[in-house]
Specification:
Order of helices and strands: HHHHHHHHH
Largest sheet: none
Strand content: under 5%
Low-confidence stretches: 20-31, 188-195
Mean pLDDT: 73
Helix content: over 70%
Number of strands: 0
Radius of gyration: 25 Å
Distance between the termini: 89 Å
CATH class of the largest domain: Mainly Alpha
Number of domains: 2
CATH architecture of the largest domain: Alpha Horseshoe
Number of helices: 9
Length: about 200
């Protein structure tokens, strides 16, 4: 083979191997997404049924292949919180927030994790971010009210409980339960809410 023919042959193989590499890489990405989606579907059918160990195993399997999969990070964080592993939940939700820093679901859940640890100031900060990202997020208003209540800031707590009442009747029910809990503590002597 002449020098020019060998050079053309090398260019041909180089060009085609790059194309083949792109095709194989795209196929691998499609496979990973498909695998993650199938595994996530299985986990999502186990998790609500209380099969926390199975759901945990499936979420971890996804993260083994896709360590930055935000849904698996978030949902595994929920499982760990349900299992009482609050620090593990915090770590997982922190990783999800690193990937999606303004996701109101992730922010609200991080607020819940902080509440569980008695870190009320941090809970307030992150819950305010959740409300800023989704101004009609009734659960974030409720959790922020809980953080204020636990901090002894009862007027702020009531303001936030009432803020969540404008969204839906379900939100008003949540607020009513929270308000009732506040009144039962005997720490607030104000009037009753009107729903």
């Amino acid at each position: 083979m002449s020098g020019a023919a060998a050079e053309n042959s090398c260019r041909f193989f180089s060009r085609h191997s790059q194309s083949l590499s792109k095709v194989l890489s795209a196929d691998a990405d499609r496979f990973r997404v498909s695998y993650a989606n199938q595994t996530l579907d299985k986990a999502l059918s186990s998790h609500p049924q209380g099969q926390l160990e199975k759901a945990c195993r499936l979420y971890r399997r996804i993260l083994k292949h896709e360590p930055r999969h935000v849904d698996a990070l978030y949902l595994l964080g929920i499982v760990e919180r349900q299992r009482g592993h609050v620090l593990e939940a915090e770590s997982l939700i922190s990783r999800a927030l690193y990937e999606a820093p303004e996701n109101p679901l992730f922010l609200n859940f991080m607020g819940d994790v902080y509440l569980a640890q008695g870190r009320f100031g941090e809970a307030c900060l992150v819950l305010k971010r959740a409300i800023q990202a989704k101004p009609d997020y009734a659960n974030a208003y409720n959790n922020l009210g809980c953080a204020y209540r636990e901090s002894g800031m009862l007027d702020d707590a009531i303001d936030h409980y009432l803020s969540c009442t404008g969204a839906t009747s379900a939100a008003r029910t949540v607020a009513h339960r929270s308000w009732s809990g506040l009144l039962r503590t005997g720490r607030y002597a104000g009037g009753h809410p009107v729903f």
